[in-house]
Amino acid sequence: MNGPSLSAVEAWEALFRVQVALLRRFKRNFKGAEISLGEYDVLYNLRLFPGNRLRLHELNEHILLSQPSLSRLIARMVAAGLVRRERDPVDGRGTLVVMTEHGAEVQRRVGREHAVAITRYVGGALTTDELHELRRLCEKLRAGQADLPD
């Protein structure tokens, strides 16, 4: 094949456009909330790891922000009591970002509201079978990207 597959390009465009549309809706839902969508994303990702903690550079692999933007976001979250910074005991040069108890409470509370929005916007547009197929296809596409973090 000499050029990109038109169907692959069209599929990417469709995926990208729906992601943008959904993220815009979710951001609107977070307006006036106690935390931003970006702060929720950090808390959600920390929740996935043992001790609700992750090295800053590893967290950056899971968040769609540049390193400087993530550092500024973390500074605001520290000031709000959602996370704290700790020196990495294994490598003193590294910084751990640790979710506080307050951060965990906020994540659970806001997460329930966010799940309702996801169910409305995604689950409301697709059948149960289509949701399973979408998940299967997304997991297959992600597995095909060997250099992406898990």
How would you summarize this macromolecular structure in one to three sentences?
The chain is mainly alpha-helical and 150 residues long.
Task: List its traits.
Arc Repressor Mutant, subunit A, 150 residues, 6 helices, 3 strands, mainly alpha, single chain
Could you explain the architecture of this structure?
The structure is a single chain. The protein is mainly α and 150 residues long. The protein has one domain: Winged helix-like DNA-binding domain superfamily/Winged helix DNA-binding domain (Arc Repressor Mutant, subunit A, Orthogonal Bundle), CATH 1.10.10. It is built from 6 helices and 3 strands. Helix 1 packs across helix 5 (101-123). The longest helix is centred in the N-terminal third of the chain and has 25 residues, at 6-30. The protein starts with 5 loop residues before the first helix and ends in a 7-residue tail after the last helix.
Please identify the oligomeric state: single chain
- Terminal CA distance: 30 Å
Q: Based on CA inertia axes, which overall geometry fits?
A: globular
Looking at the structure, the CATH topology is Arc Repressor Mutant, subunit A
Would you identify the CATH H-level superfamily? Winged helix-like DNA-binding domain superfamily/Winged helix DNA-binding domain
CATH architecture: Orthogonal Bundle
- Regarding CATH, which class? Mainly Alpha
Characterize the biggest β-sheet.
3 strands, antiparallel
How does the helix and strand content classify structurally? mainly alpha
**Secondary structure tally: strands:** 3
List unreliable stretches of 5+ residues. none
Residue share in helices? 55-70%
Query: In the residues, how many domains can be counted?
Result: 1
Mean pLDDT comes to 92
Radius of gyration: 18 Å
Percent in strands: 5-15%
Write down the secondary-structure element order: HHEHHEEHH
